[in-house]
Amino acid sequence: MSVIARGLTREYGGVNVVDGIDLEIKAGECFALLGPNGAGKTTTLRMLLGLTPPSAGEITVLGEPIPQRARAMRERAGIVPQFDNLDPDFSVRENLIVYGAYYGAGRRQIEARMDELLRFAELTERADDPIQGLSGGMKRRLTLARALVNDPELLALDEPSTGLDPQARQHIWERLHALRRRGKTLLLTTHYMEEAERLCDRAAIIDHGRIVACDSPRGLIEAHIEPHVVELRGDLALQWKDVALAGFRVEPVGETVLIYGQEREALLREIDALIGPGYLYRPASLEDVFLRLTGRELRD
Amino acid sequence: MAVIDHLRTAPRLSFRFIAVWLRNLKVWRKLMLPSLLGNFGEPVLYLIALGYGLGQFVGEIDGMRYMVFLASGIVCSAAMTGATFEALYSAFTRLTTQQTWAAMLAAPMNVDDVVLGEIAWAATKALINASAIVLVASVLGLVAGPQALLVLPVILLAGFAFAGLAMIITAISPSYDFFLYYFTLVMTPMLLLSGVFFPLSGLPDAVALGAQFLPLAHVVMLVRPLMTGGVVEMPLLHLAVVAGYAAASYWIAAALARKRLVR
Ligand SMILES: Nc1ncnc2c1ncn2[C@@H]1O[C@H](COP(=O)(O)OP(=O)(O)OP(=O)(O)O)[C@@H](O)[C@H]1O
Ligand SMILES: [Mg+2]
Questions:
Q1: Phi/psi of residue A59, each to 5°?
Q2: Structural domain contains residue B1
Q3: pLDDT for A216-238, tens place per residue?
Q4: N or C of chain A: less Cβ packing under 10 Å?
Q5: B262/A53 Cβ within 8 A
Q6: Averaged over A125-131, what is the pLDDT?
Q7: Which residues of B touch A51 (CB under 8 A)?
């Protein structure tokens, strides 16, 4: 086991923002913490990394008790924080060298890995540029490369692709896939369902500091939602938002109406007959599970 | 944990702090020249303006030219200013806007290491500033002999004390404006009452007694005889006071920084 947490709890101002979380993450697994804003993802991650002391609960990461032996554990872990904190006084290359020194690595050791890290981040051409000139995607990639200076066994990523454009996001996902193939344990938080669905073996959906469901993305979909969905948008959605269909579940979500069914043929037959063309059919996704389990009201 | 629990906990010392020190050295080297000029330009200006200007009227103090008397004081005050600015403004920037500390803490680094690294760097800045002025003073013939080199280790120790005190303020400061309190309430009185510009014997007894509690006063009492060829009286006492300030301020600053960051 890479990560074991029991009864993990953190209280701020009289509220348990993390409220009795149990987690087990296997070595080599990719695990996602999914949750809306303020669900307690960052706080959970920080407690696992020994950066925030828990109010209650027990943690073991990479075999070390946390927070007692957090330093020893962090020598074997890499961290990508929610907000980039690259060193603005240094170039891309210097950022990697200086960060390596925080792990006790000498200049030579890092120089030996420099080309590989720069290539991984696709920043070889920008190696000597100051970081102020980098795009958001480049900064994120450099932060990821920086988390790899110590060749960690476990990588913890807090919203690795939030705020990036689709290309940059694809790029990060592709990098994370490469790390998975190398056998690294990945623990990431996200509110992009697609991210969890594509990358992760298992995901825990957390809301108000509690795990409301935890399984593989497929398993979550099978357990919590009908497998087939029809989406109505725009005028169609307005027109049909109050429709009642026997044997199907109708969910208005903002400007969209979602109609869920157990069987594809039956669902489409019904919709074709009643509504006609202009709808969108898709298989159910993690997003449907997420909305179902965490509700549809806005957070924060 | 409450502040008092942090204060009861001893900082955990390790050599990790060197990485923080090296980081700051690496940044400083990029801007070495302007930084050096800025840092010792002002104290040298004080030395020359006050030394020549005021010196004409003052005549001799304790059997030495005013310029000679003043040079050793300026060495000490430049060390204090250098360490203080670094541990206040620069460290606070790395703690807040730049989030450099947060990045370090995600690596296998503790708050105690980061605070010690910052203090050690600020002490180094004090040493750099003071060395530059010792050099200028010796060129101007204001230094008695090679025993003035002993000033440097004393200044390094003093740098730890001044940086530690400033780091306490940095650790609790909500913003840059807060530093003004420290300058008005601590730095300025200390600068004026420690024997930098005139001997303590000129002060009313009560004030002179109070000045005995100021670390800068003890630094001046060590540095002045070393630079002017006199005999240091009670060197161990002065060293103990300065070292005590250095150790206690580090302890307190580390505790307050832990309180701020580990939550
Ligand atoms: N240091 C702190 N002091 C007080 N409250 C805090 C602190 N850190 C987090 N909180 C509160 O705890 C709750 C959970 O915060 P957390 O950052 O863990 O959420 P999150 O799931 O990471 O959210 P987001 O998606 O916005 O990053 C929030 O309500 C937040 O305001
Ligand atoms: Mg967060």
A1: -135, 135
A2: no
A3: 999 999 999 999 999 999 888 88
A4: C
A5: yes
A6: 97
A7: 105-106, 262
- In this predicted structure, what is the pLDDT of residue A298? 62
CB contact under 8 A, B102 and A81: yes
Which residues of chain A are within 8 Å of residue B22 when distances are taken between CB atoms? 98, 101
Residue-number span of the structural domain to which B19 is assigned: 14-261
**Separation of alpha carbons A286 and A216, rounded Å:** 10
pLDDT at B253 over 80: yes
Positive/negative CA dihedral, A114, A120, A126, A131 = negative
Q: Does A245 touch chain B (CB under 8 A)?
A: no
Q: Are B24 and B127 in contact (CB under 8 A)?
A: no
Residue B3 domain-assigned (yes or no) = no
**B176 Cβ contact list (under 8 Å, min separation 6):** B89, B92
DSSP calls for B191-219: HHHSSSSS-GGGS-HHHHHHHTT-HHHHH
Q: By the CB < 8 Å criterion, does B110 face chain A?
A: yes
Structure tokens at A56: 């209650």
- Residue A157: phi, psi to the nearest 5? -125, 120
**For ligand 1, atom 5: residue with the closest CA:** A12
Is there a cis peptide before residue B225, judged by omega within 30 degrees of 0?
A: no
Handedness of CA B102, B103, B108, B111 (dihedral sign): negative
Q: Is residue B5 part of a domain?
A: no
The domain total for chain B is: 1
Token pair belonging to A8: 């993990």
The dihedral through the CA atoms of A68, A70, A71, A72 has a sign that is positive
- Going along chain A from its start, the domains and CATH numbers come out as 3-216 (3.40.50.300), 226-283 (3.30.70)
Hey, whose CA ends up nearest to atom 24 of ligand 1?
A37
d(CA A243, CA A277): 16
Q: Is A209 left (phi over 0), alpha (psi -120 to 50) or beta?
A: left
Residues above pLDDT 90, as percent of chain A: 84
Name the residue of A41, A157, A162, A211 to mutate for ligand 1: max ligand atoms within 8 A of Cβ.
A41
Is the CB of residue A154 less than 8 Å from the CB of residue A61? yes
Residue B222 pLDDT exceeds 90: yes
How far apart, in whole angstroms, are the C-alpha atoms of residue A59 and residue B227?
Answer: 58
Say yes or no for a CB contact (<8 Å) between B100 and A87. Answer: yes
With the most atoms of ligand 1 within 8 angstroms of its CB, the residue from A15, A37, A43, A193 to mutate is: A43
| B198 within some domain | yes
